[in-house]
Design goal:
Layout lengths: L3 E3 L12 E7 L5 H7 L4 H8 L5 E7 L2 E7 L2 H10 L6 E4 H12 L11 H15 L5 H20 L9 H13 L6 E5 L3 H11 L5 E6 L2 H11 L2 E4 L3 H7 L2 E4 L10 H10 L11 E5 L16 E5 L4 H9 L2 H26 L1 H26 L4 H31 L3 H13 L10
Parallel strand pairs: 1-5, 6-7, 6-9, 7-8, 9-10, 10-11
Antiparallel strand pairs: 2-4, 2-5, 3-4
Helix pairs in contact: 4-6, 4-13, 5-6, 6-13, 7-8, 10-11, 13-15, 14-15, 14-16, 15-16
Length: 434
Amino acid sequence: MESHREEVSGMNDLLFVPIAIAGISHHQATVDRLEQFRFADEAAFLARAKGRFRGVLIIQTCNRIEILVHGESSALRSLLEEEGRSGFSLLTGTEALRHLLLLAAGMESMIVGEDQIIGQLKDALALAKEAGAASPILELCINKAVHTGIEVRRHTRINRGAVSIGSAAVLLAEEQLGSLEGKRILVVGSGEMGMLVAQALAAKKLTAMYVANRTYNRAEVLAKKIGGKAVKLTELPRYMTISDLVISCTSAPHPIIYRENLQEIMRSRRWPLDSHPRPLVLIDIAQPRDVEEGTEEIDGIHLFTIDSLRRINELTMNTRKEAAEQAGSFVEEELHQFTRLLNGKAADETLSHLHTWAESIRLRERDRALSRLGAGNPRAGQIVDDLSRALVNKILSEVTVSIRLCAECGDLGYAQSLVAAITQGEKICFRNEE
């Protein structure tokens, strides 16, 4: 269900810079719904979107797809509807900023307190900058969010004992197999998630760990780090036949483990006199999914997806409630400073008008003075120019600070009125005047 909230509770809560964020996450969407909403080509999406906003970036992880814009929320809603997306949440103003800070703090993650979101936010900004879709305001927003996320983790225990999705998958595997000691495990994918999974498994007393990847060299690198064996994707059937557990986490845009192949693999796992094959636990934490739909119907297959990890988060969250409350309080303090910072930026256009007006006067009066001095002394010209520039800067220094403070405190109208009074001789409109 779509929601649209904007913070309007008081002057200090107003945000003058148009910021909006929209999308879906594990909070309200299943794995299937996330797959349907996902943008397969992020760069292409940014290319389509950047003409509508001063800045736009997209954050896509295993359990969320969100679009942050420096622009109007109505334009963001229209864009997503044109892109065939529906059922998204839409936040604007300080609510959007609060969500961004909570996201960076790990408070919105499926595994509360996980650290991967920090890198994912940085990657989203890097992609937006590469696509020419970032704005200075969006860059400021992401950098502030990343800083807040780091500080939250430093000042609270929100990520003490926290598990990533990768290590949560290993906990789930231990629940299903009783113990991983002596087991053979196949990890498919050697990216960031594959690394997290492999590192969590390396501490277990396994008989063997196999690492498969589309690029064999990357599989070799990861296998070497964790003392495992690299295998090629073409060898998956063989190693799935001898493994007790398969954890798949590639970035492939389509399934790589097919139902038909698994049926053949499970036939190979049945002893001649057994009525059922040896069980095979499959944990698919990829987005989009690596394992073809319907696989769970095969005899002996026990398939788990990201949706299965929600319970792991509930268990870890119970142990970190106090830290979560501290993190929430810290975020609220940062939100206030964040709003002031952005509102100060909102005064830039007003200040630009003031300084442009002052510069035009300076140049006019400088030229008049130089014409009266004549061309006999070139050094006098430089002195007059330096003097006029210094006078303007001194005169505008204090009023510039006042205008920016007005904006930071939620009174941009008064700042604009002050500039109009200086540049056009208009009456200053006080806040309580009609």
